[in-house]
Amino acid sequence: MKFSLPAIILIVLGSVLLLDNLGFARFDFGRLVATWWPAILIAVGLSMLFKGSK
Questions:
Q1: Start and end of every LiaI-LiaF-like transmembrane region domain (predicted)?
Q2: Which end of the chain is more exposed for a tag (fewer CB within 10 A), N or C?
Q3: Angstrom distance (rounded) from CA 26 to CA 1
Q4: What is the pTM of this model?
Q5: Range of the domain at 14
């Protein structure tokens, strides 16, 4: 079974936004992105690297 990383990201992001809209959880996306943007860049770079080597 092969998973698509963009699909998984969209599912997780949609689930988090739904939980926030329904009031089950509170998320501050501005702070989250401001804190984790270097890790996001690394993840995208690794994804591109491994996708290119196949």
A1: 5-49
A2: N
A3: 33
A4: 0.53
A5: 5-52
The dihedral sign for the CA sequence 15, 21, 27, 33: positive
Task: Give CA–CA dist 7/22, Å, rounded.
Answer: 22
Categorise residue 3: left if φ over 0, alpha if ψ from -120 to 50, beta otherwise.
beta
Q: Residue 9: which of 49, 32, 38, 40 has the closest Cα?
A: 40
Instruction: Provide the token pair at 8.
Output: 């998984």
Domains of the chain: total:
1
